[in-house]
């Protein structure tokens, strides 16, 4: 990878992060407006601190992150019949990308990898960042 393409990738990543932050701000403002007593002034209050808006305001909000390896459908009778040692076939094949979900929304896809610094643990190498228009 050349320095130019690395800089472009970093620029794209920063742009995607900025778009995600703005989208989250919009959602937070919508929720604030729906609360009793919420209005235009109340909605603007969470986005500013000491008169300056900043992404640090939302960086400590916890989110649920899930890596979805696959899924399947089965009848209740098959589900009840599962026992130790049973194998459940998933809808994905070996080598297919897994979904990275945040609060139930797909934000990326990636491949499973073994962590270099701890070979007893798995990680995900991101291969695709989902744009908000494609997120499902």
Radius of gyration equals 20 Å
CATH architecture of the largest domain: Roll
CATH superfamily of the largest domain: SpoA-like
Uncertain segments are 39-52
Report the CATH topology name of the largest domain: Surface presentation of antigens (SPOA)
The overall pLDDT, averaged over residues, is 77
**Count of runs of 4 or more consecutive helical residues:** 3
Assign the structural class, choosing from mainly alpha, mainly beta, alpha/beta, alpha+beta, or little secondary structure. Answer: alpha+beta
The amount of helix comes to: 25-40%
| H/E element sequence | HHEEEHEEE
Described by strand count, sense and barrel closure, the largest sheet is:
4 strands, antiparallel
Q: How are the strands ordered across the major sheet?
A: 3-4-5-6
**Number of domains as seen in the coordinates:** 2
User: Any idea what the shape is?
Assistant: extended
β-strand percent reads 15-25%
Oligomer: single chain
Report on the architecture of this protein.
- The protein has two domains: 1-59; 62-136, Surface presentation of antigens (SPOA).
- It is 31% helix and 23% strand.
- The protein has three helices and six strands, in the order ααβββαβββ.
- The protein has helices spanning 3-34, 40-44, 76-80, and strands at 48-49, 52-53, 65-68, 98-102, 105-114, 122-129.
- The strands form two sheets. The protein has a four-stranded antiparallel sheet with strand order 3-4-5-6, with no helix packed on it. It has a two-stranded antiparallel sheet with strand order 1-2.
- A hairpin with a 7-residue loop joins β5 (105-114) and β6 (122-129).
- It is extended.
């Amino acid at each position: 990878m050349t320095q130019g393409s690395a800089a472009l990738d970093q620029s794209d990543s920063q742009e995607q992060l900025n778009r995600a932050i703005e989208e989250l701000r919009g959602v937070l403002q919508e929720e604030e407006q729906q609360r009793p007593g919420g209005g235009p002034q109340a909605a603007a209050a969470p986005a500013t601190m000491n008169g300056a808006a900043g992404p640090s305001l939302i960086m400590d909000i916890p989110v649920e992150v899930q890596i979805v390896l696959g899924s399947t459908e089965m009848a209740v009778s098959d589900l009840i019949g599962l026992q130790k040692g049973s194998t459940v076939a998933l809808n994905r094949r070996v080598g297919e990308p897994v979904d990275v979900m945040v609060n139930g929304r797909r934000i990326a896809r990636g491949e499973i990898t073994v962590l270099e610094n701890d070979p007893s643990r798995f990680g995900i190498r991101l291969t695709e960042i989902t744009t908000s228009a494609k997120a499902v």
